[in-house]
Amino acid sequence: MKNEIMGVFPLWKPKGMTSFSAVKEVGKRFNTKKAGHTGTLDPDVEGVLPVCLGKATKIVEYLTADHKTYKGEVTLGFSTTTEDAGGEVVDKSHVDRTITENEINSVFKQLTGALEQTPPMYSAVKVKGKKLYEYAREGKTVDRPSRQVTIYDLDLLSAPRVNNNGTVSFQFRAKCSKGTYIRTLSVQIGEKLGYPSHMSHLVREASGPFVGEDCVTLDELDHASAEGRANDLLIPVERALERFSSITISGEIENKVLQGAILPVPEQTFSMDESIFAIYNQEGRVLALYKKDEKRNGMMKPEKMIRTIHD
C-alpha cells in the first residue's frame, strides 16, 4: 500500500477561529490539502474537533454523524439575535423569582429524547441555496425547516447563579445527536423556565470516540512538527470506526474486498442488526465498510472503501 498520510488529528480548536480555518491550519502542517472536520464548531466555541487527513477523509461523514458532548452555560434574562453571548439583545426580562435546581432538572427531563429544533438565523444551514447567516447579515428573516434531533443526556452541573446584572446562569452537559444546536437548546430551556435566554458559554468535550484528553492544540502540533513526530499524534482510522461491528476476513478474501467485490455474508454476521459493519484484515487494518445487500439474499456489498487494491 502507498505511503500516503491516513489518520485523524484530534484538534482542540481554540476560541476565535473558524472550523474551516482550523482544518486549513492542520492540513498545512501535515502538508496535505485533503483534510476535513467532523462537525462545525462556531468561532467562539472551543473544544474537540477531529480532523481527517489524507485517505481518512473517506470517513468524515461517519464521524460527523456520531454523537457529540458539550459543556455549556445558559443565562436567563435576555435573548440575542445569534442565541449566544455575541449577538444583539432582542428580548429582555428581569428574572424576578428564584430558579431552583429541581425546576431546571424537570425541564431537562422534558427536553431529553427526540426534540424539534428550528436552526437559528445565524447558522450555516442553507435555504434556497443560501446560508442562513447570509440572510441574517442582510437583515432578513426567512422560514427555516425544523429538524428532529436527539438529546441523549442532559445534566445540570451547577446551582443557578444570580449575576450582578440580575440575570441567572447555570451550567449543563448535553450528549446529543448530529445537527443539534446547543444555542437553540439554551433558548428552549429558557422558554420552559419562562424567560428569554441565550447560551453564554460552550465547550465541546467529545465528538464520537474522541474526547478532550485525546486532543492536541496547534501550538503542541508545532512543537511536535519541529521534533519530527507530528505523525505520532495521528489516530488510526481503526479507532475512529470502533463503534461499528467488525468482521475479520482471511488473507484470500482480502484482495476481493480491496476490489470492492460483492461477497457472501459471513455466518457470524447474519444475526447482526447493524446496517453497516467494518471489514478488517488479519493485520487488524480496516479495509472497508460493508452492508448487507438488500437485493441479494445472503450477500454483502461495499458501503465505503477505506483502502483499495491500488493503495
UniProtKB/TrEMBL annotation:
The gene is truB. GO terms for molecular function: RNA binding; tRNA pseudouridine(55) synthase activity. Residues 29-182 form the Pseudouridine synthase II N-terminal domain. This is tRNA pseudouridine synthase B. Its EC number is 5.4.99.25. GO terms for biological process: mRNA pseudouridine synthesis; tRNA pseudouridine synthesis. Residues 183-241 form the tRNA pseudouridylate synthase B C-terminal domain. Responsible for synthesis of pseudouridine from uracil-55 in the psi GC loop of transfer RNAs. It catalyses: uridine(55) in tRNA = pseudouridine(55) in tRNA. InterPro entries: PsdUridine_synth_cat_dom_sf, PsdUridine_synth_N, tRNA_psdUridine_synth_TruB, TruB_C. The keyword Signal does not apply. Belongs to the pseudouridine synthase TruB family. Type 1 subfamily. Signal peptide: none annotated. Keywords: Isomerase, tRNA processing. The lineage of its organism: Bacteria, Bacillati, Bacillota, Bacilli, Bacillales. The active site is at 42 (nucleophile).
